[in-house]
Amino acid sequence: MLKLCVGVSDIAGLQYWVDLRAAEAVSRGEPPCHRHITRHRPRRGAQITGKGSLYWVISGSIQVRQPIVGFEDVVAEDNVRRCAIVLAPTLVPTRPVPRRPFQGWRYLEADDAPADLQSHEGDELPEQLRHELAGLGLL
Predict the structure, then answer these.
(1) What span, in angstroms and rounded, lies between the C-alpha atoms of 54 and 16?
(2) pTM of the full predicted structure?
(3) Cβ(49)–Cβ(70) under 8 Å?
(4) Domain count, the chain
(5) Nearest alpha-carbon partner for 1 in 74, 81, 118, 99
(6) Which of 14, 41, 50, 117 places its Cα 20 to 30 Å from the Cα of 91?
(7) What is the separation of C-alpha 61 from the centre of its chain, rounded to a whole number of angstroms?
(8) Are 91 and 127 in contact (CB under 8 A)?
(9) Contact between residue 16 and residue 9 where contact means Cβ atoms under 8 Å apart
(10) How far apart are CA 52 and CA 69, in angstroms?
(11) What's the domain range around 70?
């Protein structure tokens, strides 16, 4: 799945929110996880659970993925039924791939998913420089 990461400008900002949500889950006696609330439950949820990831678009490019643990039905404060995407607290940097803005989430086919960024493939580069190089097609 593919989702815009609104209000976050880099992977470190997303990591802050993931850590905060995982700590909140632990304080409630739950396993550490990050829940992202969305309006609609994915129809392919059974195919994705435990096998897929949510790829986050940060500052105009896919930069990181987060493994999907499952989906839960939740009722929001306004008594509207929604879906929580339950995510592992682990962020896996990927090769940056430019993406235009969109609303909601999208399915991302396995063939179109960017490869994980290996430790020797740019970890020593600052995140902003990696983003700019990817935009130029050099990374």
Answers:
(1) 17
(2) 0.81
(3) yes
(4) 1
(5) 99
(6) 41
(7) 12
(8) no
(9) no
(10) 8
(11) 2-135
